[in-house]
Amino acid sequence: MADRTLPQVFKYVDDNAETFKKLLKEAVAIPSVSCDVKYRNDCVRMVEWMQEKLKEVGATTELRDVGYQTIDEKEVKLPPVLVGVLGNDPLKQTICIYGHLDVQPALKSDGWDTEPFELVERDGKLFGRGSTDDKGPVLGWVHAINAYKAVGEELPVNLKFVLECMEESGSEGLDALLLEKLKPEGFFKDVDYVCISDNYWLGTTKPCITYGLRGISYYFLEIQCAQMDLHSGVYGGTVHEAMTDLIYLMNELVDKNGKILIDGIYDSVAPLTDNEKKLYTNIDFDTDGYRKSIGAPKLAHNGDKEQILMHRWRFPSLSLHGIEGAAFQPGAKTVIPGKVIGKFSIRIVPNQEPEEVEKLVFDFVNKKWAARKSPNKMRITAQSGRAWTENPDHPHYQAAARATRMIYLTEPDMSREGGSIPVTITLQEASGRNVLLLPMGAGDDMAHSQNEKINVRNYIEGIKLFAAYFHEVSKLPKPSK
């Protein structure tokens, strides 16, 4: 079949590249920002738009209600999750595809060169919020299905879809839907493999397949002023300010080189083996090329490839994200906030359990707070997700590697990833099947930053990759139940 069908599929993809760009433009134009309630209707509109695209390729779809969330003490309805099924041939492999349709906030004033919700092509790149994270890849699956249909060939696999619009805001409601509803209903009963395309190549030119993700623990560090009559403290310094206490605590968490200062945080990290070290040595990653692509004057760890990769993938890291309640508007301000909340996160790695890491953080912060002897009130809370790894030698991964070689004519790197996709573990638990991360975008796509883009090459060749992946998975033996 490959000799006859895939060349036709690939030609169709090339011939219809402009149509595929136009559809991505439509998707990017919907500002489905999940973290801002004023865009909640746009999130619903985005899900409904994608539902129509799945229906057009013949999928049976439904929108599943996942309840409400509390925002500013108000109950706000969550956008529905789009669930779809395409094909039910018991002789074919069934792949469950996960993706998300929501995006991070974006304003031109943030530093974008163009309007973030208007897809703009420039220098072989498609700029727009969601172009690579994750609307482009989600559309890639639809385009691959369409290509098979257009050349008159039957899709070689059955497909199931789980597409949400809250991933950038913690995937609220999704775990309960997957584990408490879809699994008992039998949605995963005939699933053979799970595939996610919500990650990126390690660098900018070499394709990869991802077999591991770091977990994440989010922390919310709240300081409440003991004395609420703050006016008298503006000039006299009679009030122990909440902001001062918060800055003190956050400054104690990490040093200037990125080393986490929390006692015991590295104790459970798996020691580096000789075989694992060889993996980092053999990976094709041009550190200087990467540095130039992201416009950085220098990289951490003196630009050492192995150290950069290990600190990105296998060691924990801590990031400070912001302070809620502080004055942030331009101009001179003398506001003294009565309560502030500092937000930070720790990326955790295999062998580290979220509960263990949370206890270490709480103990450390409480110790530092006791030493501070402040009259103010401190409270710390957390929410966490585990790290995830799979076996890159699994037949599913080898099928994806063959598909990658077919499209890019090179051996893909088997890589881990520094980011976190908590639903990966949930899908693994719900289905009991091998989970694969097959990226479409490149490492310099700036997914959560200004000028997010996807290269035209990655978008179009990525569609072909998904089509080839369908074919390669169709040749695998049925996994044992």
UniProtKB/TrEMBL annotation:
<keyword id="KW-0378">Hydrolase</keyword>
<dbReference type="Pfam" id="PF01546">
    <property type="entry name" value="Peptidase_M20"/>
</dbReference>
<feature type="active site">
    <location>
        <position position="102"/>
    </location>
</feature>
<feature type="binding site">
    <location>
        <position position="133"/>
    </location>
    <ligand>
        <name>Mn(2+) 2</name>
    </ligand>
</feature>
<feature type="binding site">
    <location>
        <position position="198"/>
    </location>
    <ligand>
        <name>Mn(2+) 2</name>
    </ligand>
</feature>
<dbReference type="InterPro" id="IPR017153">
    <property type="entry name" value="CNDP/DUG1"/>
</dbReference>
<dbReference type="GO" id="GO:0046872">
    <property type="term" value="F:metal ion binding"/>
</dbReference>
<feature type="binding site" description="in other chain">
    <location>
        <position position="448"/>
    </location>
    <ligand>
        <name>substrate</name>
    </ligand>
</feature>
<dbReference type="InterPro" id="IPR002933">
    <property type="entry name" value="Peptidase_M20"/>
</dbReference>
<dbReference type="GO" id="GO:0006508">
    <property type="term" value="P:proteolysis"/>
</dbReference>
<feature type="binding site">
    <location>
        <position position="133"/>
    </location>
    <ligand>
        <name>Mn(2+) 1</name>
    </ligand>
</feature>
<comment type="similarity">
    <text>Belongs to the peptidase M20A family.</text>
</comment>
<keyword id="KW-0482">Metalloprotease</keyword>
<feature type="binding site" description="in other chain">
    <location>
        <position position="347"/>
    </location>
    <ligand>
        <name>substrate</name>
    </ligand>
</feature>
<keyword id="KW-0464">Manganese</keyword>
<dbReference type="InterPro" id="IPR001261">
    <property type="entry name" value="ArgE/DapE_CS"/>
</dbReference>
<keyword id="KW-0645">Protease</keyword>
<dbReference type="InterPro" id="IPR011650">
    <property type="entry name" value="Peptidase_M20_dimer"/>
</dbReference>
<feature type="binding site">
    <location>
        <position position="448"/>
    </location>
    <ligand>
        <name>Mn(2+) 1</name>
    </ligand>
</feature>
<keyword id="KW-0479">Metal-binding</keyword>
<feature type="binding site" description="in other chain">
    <location>
        <position position="420"/>
    </location>
    <ligand>
        <name>substrate</name>
    </ligand>
</feature>
<feature type="binding site">
    <location>
        <position position="100"/>
    </location>
    <ligand>
        <name>Mn(2+) 2</name>
    </ligand>
</feature>
<protein>
    <recommendedName>
        <fullName>Peptidase M20 dimerisation domain-containing protein</fullName>
    </recommendedName>
</protein>
<dbReference type="InterPro" id="IPR051458">
    <property type="entry name" value="Cyt/Met_Dipeptidase"/>
</dbReference>
<feature type="active site" description="Proton acceptor">
    <location>
        <position position="167"/>
    </location>
</feature>
<feature type="binding site" description="in other chain">
    <location>
        <position position="198"/>
    </location>
    <ligand>
        <name>substrate</name>
    </ligand>
</feature>
<feature type="binding site">
    <location>
        <position position="168"/>
    </location>
    <ligand>
        <name>Mn(2+) 1</name>
    </ligand>
</feature>
<dbReference type="Pfam" id="PF07687">
    <property type="entry name" value="M20_dimer"/>
</dbReference>
<feature type="site" description="Important for catalytic activity">
    <location>
        <position position="231"/>
    </location>
</feature>
<feature type="binding site">
    <location>
        <position position="231"/>
    </location>
    <ligand>
        <name>substrate</name>
    </ligand>
</feature>
<dbReference type="GO" id="GO:0070573">
    <property type="term" value="F:metallodipeptidase activity"/>
</dbReference>
<feature type="domain" description="Peptidase M20 dimerisation">
    <location>
        <begin position="212"/>
        <end position="369"/>
    </location>
</feature>
<feature type="binding site">
    <location>
        <position position="334"/>
    </location>
    <ligand>
        <name>substrate</name>
    </ligand>
</feature>
